Amino acid sequence: MVNSSKTPTGKAKKGIVTIRPDAGCIKACFPRSPFPGEKGQVKRATGIPLVDGWEDKAGSLQRRLQIELDEGKLASLGGMFNLKRFNEILVEYKLRPDLKIVPGTSDGQLPPKPELSTLEIWDMYCEYKKNRDLAITTYHQEFRGVYYRAIKQAIEAVGENNPLGVHNWLLENRNHKTVKEVLSQLSKAYRIAMKQKLVSIDLYDGMSEDIQVKRKPKVINQSDDIEGDSDILDRTKAYTWNEVQIILDYVQVNCPHWFNYLKFKFLTGCRPGEAAGLWWNDVKWEHENIVFDRSYDFRLGIHKPTKNEHARIFPMPKDGELWNLLKSIPQGEPNDTVFKSKSGKKISSHIFQTTWLGREKSQKGIITELMKQGKIIKYLPPYNTRHTFINHQINVIGVAPHVVNDWCEHSEKVSKQCYRQTDTRITPGYGTSATTTQQVQQQSEIDLLREQMKQQQELINKLLQDRDNLKS
After folding, report:
1. Which residue segments constitute the domains of the chain, with CATH numbers given?
2. Dihedral of the CA atoms 336, 339, 342, 348 (nearest 10)?
3. d(CA 42, CA 82)
4. Are 151 and 186 in contact (CB under 8 A)?
5. pLDDT tens digits for 160-181?
6. Which residue of 208, 422, 443, 451 has the fewest CB atoms within a 10 Å radius of its CB?
């Protein structure tokens, strides 16, 4: 059964699991099509000993894995390989010990040491971390991506059970920051495996401690311009509102399928993933606001919480510019995406980046073309639509910084302050001078001072009354 999934040429049929010797061990090799989120073909060690008769055990496992694959149980969110389910099957077939805290033996001795490779220990550690404190993007991009590839390539280069060789190879082929983190996490993986009585020593203990990560020194001069936020409030990193109109006019004519998405970002200052992750259910027509509750990661194909992991409300006055923009888009089901690509799929910020910048020979870019025409004087990345909105509201319209932060959460320091009840009459302005938005804001602040003075006077009157009662 192990070899029956191959054609006469020796190649596996499409969609068939094969189990075969690979790099000195027996591995399960999976077809590529069910796992579009993986970088290459998925191959995982099975734990089957490479001895005579291994085919019988492999045949039984292959049939089980094929059933699981056909039923879709081995593919997780975003087209990634479901390593957790794969490990559960190996545990069921007694090919791998379960990763649970187990008590020691009565005599304090270690049980027989399982034959686990470094990558197998790493796989188990990743699943352990995933279920505890790792963000899903960190799990896929770092632990199952950058770190895994670094460990795998190092072992392939210097061999298994050669921690010093792995250490040296990584230092020669990776930046020191990555190496320090990889070796630190490997040590943690081995320490957890030691608690499970799977290994007797931590092969990577202390190996990250000698690695120095060089940091570029920061020199502060008295002559430097000082700003509260050196990035998001830096006016050189924002377009003027006149330039915004020039950009939108160009997009509406030359690439209209991006117009709604881009204008929405300019009008709200939201992050690219928040715009791509907006559902119609988040547009609250009756309350005249939008709720930013999630972000879409196009690389993993998943929705995740916003950066600060809680929803925020953005005002959308009826018949205002933002209201009319969303009204112009055909409304879908509550969980339908508001902004879609030209092909009707999810927005990819990578594709928009190409549209924004262009390709040297094959594609004109929005900003590069406007710069050639002399209509825009500087290039800023697509993310700086956020900088543009925030700068415009604070520096031109005159909205208080803490109010803008309630809308955009651009300042972590302000976000951590006590909760503020924002006056719902304060709405974003999109002109080039102070508007009624500023007037309403000023009026609301006057009203607040009046209320505070009223409360203080009531307190004084009460104290005077209490004093008179005591005298009497």
Report:
1. 18-195 (no CATH), 237-436 (1.10.443.10)
2. -100
3. 10
4. yes
5. 888 888 998 998 888 899 999 9
6. 451
